[in-house]
TrEMBL record:
Database matches in Gene3D superfamilies: Leucine-rich Repeat Variant (1.25.10.10)
Annotated DUF4062 domain residues: 7-99
Coiled-coil region list: none
Protein name: DUF4062 domain-containing protein
The organism of origin for this protein: Rhizobium hainanense
One family name in Pfam for this protein: DUF4062
Length: 818
């Protein structure tokens, strides 16, 4: 088979010789790497190739130009020389080449035209001169006419990326178009149409719409009463077709959630074209964050496959869509290594990173963090010195994760070289997840790192090894991190230094002021380090003997119960009767005794007594909560009735020790108690905006353990939406698969978004594809109200390969995703 020759004309004035040389080099590279696979040879044509022939030089060039099917024009700061005498209509050879190509395209449809403008040198725009002024006027005319797309480049490497993209893009579209025409011709010869998965082949070279789309339009127009017989799904498809057909100057609309879901529900009624499938993919990508438009199934139906479709769209869509398109690569863990990938993996990654938009850069960095390998470090290293600190820090952190897979020492070298201040937990886990593999010398260097998290982790490991000197510990008690200050205090104590509680509080607790711009919290003063002072205080009392602690409890004020807590924890068994008695009377006897002692000291008429009495219920309730946690840590099953009584009476805030105790020693009657307990949050300490899903997950695990043999009863409990979602996620695949379709559909129709998503993800992990198909059909049929996030995730279960669907669902449930 003969190779097809594609002639590309390269037009430019004479100030772009390095770029013309680079264009020749890129063309040779593409031919060398792809000509055999494509069966296409690119021939680059330009004034360098014009042989000496009689006649006007530009006329000879024009003869070559007229044989080319693709015109690529380049301009920088020169307009060029006139191609003829004063009577000639054009002022430069480039102008003649460009206008000649435009006129031929208007008559014949070819050549395709692309323009590349090199950014002028700094300072030239202030005094552009005659040549550059003409270039700028030409560029403005191109912009105003909105008929021809152009790109800008800064230097030769940037030009190479963009020129390579233009050539590969053109050739691959040409190949796809020819293959589609061949398949249609073959199908016509057999008297039938070849359709795969309801996707029609394209033929935009001769028709605006392919036959399947045109037939749909004709059918609607032929109806007797189209105004009243057209369905909502028909209208949605009309909008999709309109969005799929676009030229320069059109708005870049994407299909909205309602229309996209209408088409999805009625897709069996239509034979969708390739362009429509791409449009539906675009809609899914545009609404990726909302998860309310089907996406993944369309991707696997696209003609180029998921990676090819996404890659093409990153090349042709607007910047606003490129970041979420790249995000899809990350979420799908696509390795970018399929054959025929547009531009190829390396050039595609470089094309993304060359974007001026930081969100596109950051999305690419995130992709490399999750899907990159050591060979990809060459893409990240140039970004380490980016003027945008967000980009540079993300690139460094991504490189650390990649490097640490093979060489932890090299990863630490990088973190030491670059002073990144904020280190995400995933990076800390990567660096410090295996402490035995880290040399002590390395950890000592980390103690001076800018990041408090790095310092804290290093200090903790060195402390466990006994390798922190007193001198260093003395320096660390001034650290910005309260945890580091706490660890340093403990080290100094070990070396014989004595700190009173007052000393420790001054070191550990600091007052801060909230930054501006936080609404109700703006300008408020808060303290940091209180929890570490409480730990120090507990350790302080735990070191005392029983006799000393009993003396301290006799002398303590109405507020001071720390000695009691230490006494009960150290001598729990011996003092259980006292503990039970105090809990049952809400520490009233103990509190009243202390109040009486205080009254004798300050006098019965003091206003302070009135204020303390008013606070007494809250004070004693918190004391009971602290003592309850001690009971739950140390008690066996014999204390279960006491624990239940205190929880039911006081309704205390969430206490993980109580949840764990009931999980160990509780019975079915405790399931609802645990669910209610987990709902009580101490917002006064954590803030109104605080939400910790781990508390709900911890409660769900306890309920599921208690009710492992009665799942139907578990699901009948009065549960918050957060705990119900955690229970669904925490069920075994076998437990979930034993639920009826009706029960599963009930979850998918609840108002709580988290419950619906949990049910759809668990269905993906637990049910057969056939069951998921049945559930999806039931969910989408009729006019019943349905939630789009359910369809988004059930589509994954039904229309993507099982291994892909389960991996994606597992990452979503475990929050192991970008």
């Amino acid at each position: 088979m003969y190779r097809k020759i594609v002639k590309v004309f390269l037009g430019s004035p004479g100030d772009l010789s390095p770029e013309r040389t680079a264009a020749s080099r890129v063309t040779q590279e593409i031919n060398r790497n792809h000509a055999d696979f494509w069966n296409v040879q690119i021939e680059l044509v330009g004034w360098e190739d014009t042989v000496s022939r009689f006649g006007r030089a530009q006329s000879v060039i024009n003869q070559d130009l007229d044989q080319c099917e693709y015109f690529v024009g380049m301009m920088w700061q020169r307009w060029g020389s006139p191609p003829g005498d004063e009577t000639h209509p054009y002022s430069s050879g480039f102008e003649e080449e460009f206008q000649r190509s435009v006129e031929r395209r208007a008559k014949t449809g070819t050549p395709e035209i692309s323009l590349l403008f090199k950014v002028p040198e700094e300072g030239r725009m202030q005094d552009p001169g005659k040549e550059l002024t003409k270039v700028l006027q030409f560029k403005k005319a191109v912009i105003d006419e909105k008929k021809i797309l152009f790109q800008e480049f800064r230097d030769v490497p940037d030009f190479e990326v963009k020129f390579r993209s233009l050539l590969v893009n053109y050739v691959q579209r040409m190949i796809l178009s020819e293959r589609a025409n061949e398949e249609k011709t073959e199908a016509g010869a057999k008297g039938e149409t070849t359709v795969t998965k309801g996707v029609a082949l394209e033929d935009h070279e001769t028709h605006l719409f392919v036959e399947e789309a045109a037939s749909f339009l004709r059918e609607i127009l032929s109806r007797n009463d189209p105004t009243n017989t057209v369905s909502a799904a028909d209208i949605a498809r009309l909008r999709l077709l309109g969005a799929a057909v676009r030229r320069g100057g059109n708005d870049t609309d994407t299909l909205g959630p309602h229309d996209a879901n209408l088409i999805y529900a009625e897709q069996s009624q239509y034979t969708l074209t390739r362009g429509e499938i791409s449009g539906l993919v675009t809609s899914g990508v545009a609404h990726l964050g909302s998860e309310n438009v089907p996406l993944w199934g369309w991707l696997f139906q696209s003609q180029d496959g998921p990676e090819g479709e996404l890659a093409w769209q990153t090349l042709i869509r607007d910047d606003a869509l490129r970041a979420p398109l790249i995000k899809c690569f990350t979420k799908g863990r696509f390795p970018l290594k399929v054959e025929g990938l547009p531009l190829g993996r390396e050039h595609l990654l470089q094309y993304w990173l060359d974007s001026d938009a930081d969100d596109i850069k950051n999305a690419t960095i995130e992709y490399l963090e999750y899907c990159g390998d050591p060979e990809d470090l060459k893409f990240l290293e140039p970004l380490f010195t980016s003027v945008n600190s967000s980009v540079s820090e993300r690139a460094i952190l991504a490189a650390i994760i990649i490097i640490s897979k093979n060489n932890l020492d090299d990863a630490f070298d990088l973190i030491e070289k670059h002073a990144v201040s904020t280190i995400p937990t995933r990076v800390l886990n990567t660096l410090f997840g295996h402490p035995s593999q880290i040399r002590s010398e390395r950890l000592e260097v980390c103690l001076s790192h800018r990041s408090a998290d790095i310092r804290r982790h290093a200090l903790r490991i060195l402390f466990s090894r006994g390798q922190i000197s007193g001198k260093l510990a003395a320096e660390l008690i001034a650290d910005n991190s309260p945890e580091t200050r706490y660890e340093a205090l403990k080290l100094l104590q070990r070396d014989g230094r004595v700190f009173t509680l007052e000393d420790a509080k001054k070191i550990l607790v600091r007052t801060t002021r909230s930054p501006r711009g936080l609404g109700l919290l703006m300008g408020q003063t808060t303290t940091e380090g209180d929890e570490f002072y409480e730990k120090f205080e507990r350790d302080h009392f735990m070191q005392k003997s029983r006799k000393d602690l009993e003396e301290l409890t006799k002398e303590a004020s109405v507020y001071e119960f720390e000695a009691n807590y230490a006494l009960y924890e150290k001598h729990y068994k011996e003092l259980f009767s006292e503990i039970e008695r105090n809990l049952d009377d809400v520490f009233s006897t103990e509190f009243n005794t202390r109040m009486e002692n205080f009254r004798q000291k300050i006098g019965a008429e003091n206003d302070i007594l009135v204020r303390i009495e008013a606070q007494s219920p809250q004070i004693r309730k918190e004391i009971c909560r602290r003592v309850l946690s001690i009971v739950c840590k140390h008690a066996n099953a014999s204390a279960v009735d006491l624990v239940r009584r205190i929880i039911d009476r006081d309704q205390p805030f969430f206490l993980v020790e109580a949840i764990e105790y009931l999980e160990r020693h509780g019975a079915w009657e405790d399931a609802q108690r645990i669910a209610d307990f987990a709902e009580r949050k101490n917002y006064s300490k954590r803030g109104l905006l605080h939400f910790d899903s781990e508390e709900e997950k911890r409660a769900a695990r306890a309920i599921l353990k208690i009710g492992k043999d009665r799942i139907a009863d578990v699901l009948s409990l009065n549960l918050s939406s957060e705990i119900l979602a955690a229970i669904i996620e925490g069920m075994t695949n076998k437990q979930f698969s034993e639920l009826s379709n009706s029960n599963i559909l009930n979850f998918m129709n609840l108002q709580a978004t988290g419950v619906r998503k949990a049910a759809a993800l668990k269905a993906t992990l637990s049910l057969t594809k056939k069951r998921n198909i049945d559930i999806l059909k039931t969910y989408t049929k009729g006019d019943n109200y349905r939630y789009y996030n359910v369809i988004h995730w059930l589509d994954v279960a039904v229309n993507t390969p099982v291994s892909f669907a389960k991996s994606l669902a597992m990452r979503e449930i475990s929050n192991d995703d970008a």
